[in-house]
Amino acid sequence: MARTFKPQIVSANDLAIGDVVYMNSGGGWTRKLAEAAIAHTPEEGETLMGRAAPQQAKVVGPYLADVALDDDGRPFPTHFREKFRTRGPSTRPDLGKQSANPERREPLAASGGI
Amino acid sequence: MYRYDEFDHDYVRARVSEFRDQTRRRIDGALTEDEYKPLRLMNGLYLQLHAYMLRVAIPYGTLNSRQMRTLAMIAERWDEGYGHFTTRQNIQYNWTKLTDVGDILDALADVEMHAIQTSGNTIRNVTADHFAGAAADEIEDPRPTAELIRQWSTAHPEFAFLPRKFKIAVTGSPNDRAVTKAHDIGLRMVLSDAGAPGYEVIVGGGLGRTPMIGKVIRDFLPKADLLPYLEAILRVYNLHGRRDNKYKARIKILVHETGIDDMRAQVEAEFERQMREEGGPLVAPDPEHVARIAAYFTPPAFAALPDRSEGLESAMAHDAALKTWVENNTSEHRAPGHAIVTVAIKGTGEAPGDATTAQMRVLADMGEKYSHDELRISHEQNVILPHVRKDDLPAVFSALRKAGLATANAGLITDIIACPGLDYCALATARSIPVAQDLSRRFAAPDRAKAIGNFTIKISGCINACGHHHVGHVGILGLEKSGIENYQITLGGDHTETMAVGERAGPGISAEEVGPAIERLVDAYLDRREGENERFIDTYRRVGADPFKEALYAA
Amino acid sequence: MPLITDTGFAPDDSPALIDMEALPDAGEGAALDLPLDADIAAIVPHFNRLALIVVPFPSFADGRGFSIARRLRALGYRGRLRAAGHVITDQYPFARFCGFDEVQISDILAERQPENLWLDAQGRAVPPFLKRKARGWT
Lengths: 114, 555, 138
Ligand code: HEM
Ligand code: SF4
Hints:
Order of helices and strands of chain A: EEEHEEHH
Mean pLDDT of chain A: 87
Number of domains of chain A: 1
Number of helices of chain B: 18
Number of domains of chain B: 4
CATH class of the largest domain in chain B: Alpha Beta
Shape of chain A: globular
Low-confidence stretches of chain A: none
Oligomer: heterotrimer
Bound molecules: protoporphyrin IX containing FE, iron/sulfur cluster
Largest sheet of chain A: 5 strands, antiparallel
Structural class of chain A: alpha+beta
């Protein structure tokens, strides 16, 4: 049975602080899943991964992750592991992306350089 | 305690600047991530789900108050105000920035600490009995041996790129508190027939996806032969350990596939070859050096005290909480009038092993004031004050209580080991901390926990078994099933000298079911035990698994 | 493919390599390409005719070559010993300690890790146990 293609995004960790980042439509990186570029076909997925490959000096371990789309076409995670990555530890709601002030940790990839 | 000599100091500093340089080369592109990763891992730096994690070694679990204060300072200054004590006597910081690591390592070097070889396919931080030098049942303090191994294994040029990680543990007591049979090499101090101290050498133990109990490769190894013998084992492993499949790369698989007898023959041949080498084995240390190491571990001068402390007895008579805590969280010390205190880092509803900056500072104060400036980290993720006068126990209890560190549950059902699981770990298939928190709340009532008695629950968030679930009386393994977290229960494991690997009870259950299932299991045990002193594991061995499986799945 | 020694990059001056099968007939000054799974004891009788042994490093993470070098030296091999393949600068001091005289890497790797990085690597942290050993552990 051929797998029906699910929308995908490219995710990775920021080289400098390790924070979860997503590739945006400009080929750069954002820490918000809502701003991620969405691949609707396997070819689009490969194109995104192709853009990630030369960015070793910004991010670590880029990979394609499945997402689902809400009514406005914004991506949200389907797997619970990816849900945790959009938030932070479930046991420490004060830490990670879910915290009141996630921006105090400035990622390298989203800011442009060390 | 061991103090660095000039070589240690020079080396640790050189490693910090080397790491800074490697990181610079990673950012510049001279090193790819594939090449940099093993180098950062050799310095204890992992990339986790949400951030980098730095694992700092606490060699053989021993540290002083100054070092504990530095650990607190690092948590405060460069992390999020807490650290996680692990089953391998390390501390992990969960929110490290790559660009801060050099500074953190320098701060550690200031107090003779480092993160070297806490990860990667190297010889890892060597662990030892956390009661070393204090336990009443000890043949010899295992720490001089552990320190010698630390010196030999640090940056060993031949063994920095092994097929897989390599863990060594040492115990000096017949009661094995160092889980030696679940290590790549376990060393147990024994006496020869003539009364000379040496080691029983155990090889090929390990947990992970194929748990194996270590096998004896040498009944008695004279102390002086230790390093050449370890070197022989490591060389055979480095040459013949499997490199085609990372799940089969540990020495336990080599021992299993080769057979212990054949393995022994190869190791002995390699050992003999070294003994014949020109000028003797390269790594045989000078006895003077060994004696110098041992001198650092001379026990402190314990005051001559009567074994019974009147002050403590009368305080306990007035304070039931103190009494419960003393009964549960102190162990017999070799010096009369002294006790070993286990500080449980297992508050009700807390993450096992997590200590805040403030708690670490209180622990440092307690160590300095009441325990000859010594602290230990146990593989149960607790902190030990090894040398406390019984007269001082009420004061220690009261200070710990203020800091939320006086939970009286050492060895009880709420003294749970749990790995970081999916809340932090990139390899996890399910969470483990919330399961531990739930169980610790369910069994929080001190009387009930006490009535249940010695009972170990160990939780891992994936098959890698960092939470030792295979050797818990009850083991809980978090897996994924059809996109949700699912927990497999094992029964009958044992981490001590009578080590046993737990048996799978049946199909996995959902996160919400774990708590009620364990409660039913405990009730089934209380119904069946013969007398209050029969521990769960004893009842289990007597009556078998069936009644407990039934209780688990009764819902 | 540059050869690296303590003085930096050097051109490859080695004779043609022979394999294990040709070893019994090898003449004086032969250079042997040693497979990682070779029985080292079997080549001991040929040591005095070998001028060079080349130990492969299929990946920098495969550390078997280090143990092979130590074993060759322990068994009395005194000729040239080379680590060839994927070796990174950080491993240079390890290779030297284990008994290698030189390292050979691909041109592509040499581009990414040029001579100055290899020269820098020599000054790297010497394990304290070696230094203590040099001083007789005192
Ligand atoms: C959070 C990041 C961690 C990662 C990525 C990690 C990774 C692993 C892996 C892959 C294994 C399996 C090794 C094998 O079987 O070959 C393992 C085993 C183990 N880890 Fe961890 N671990 C982590 C944290 C911890 C923590 C926090 C502890 C202590 C609480 C720990 C202690 C152990 C122990 C005791 C074992 C099993 C014993 C053995 O067979 O080596 N690890 N770990
Ligand atoms: S057992 Fe699995 S989830 Fe837990 S720390 Fe180890 S690798 Fe991570």
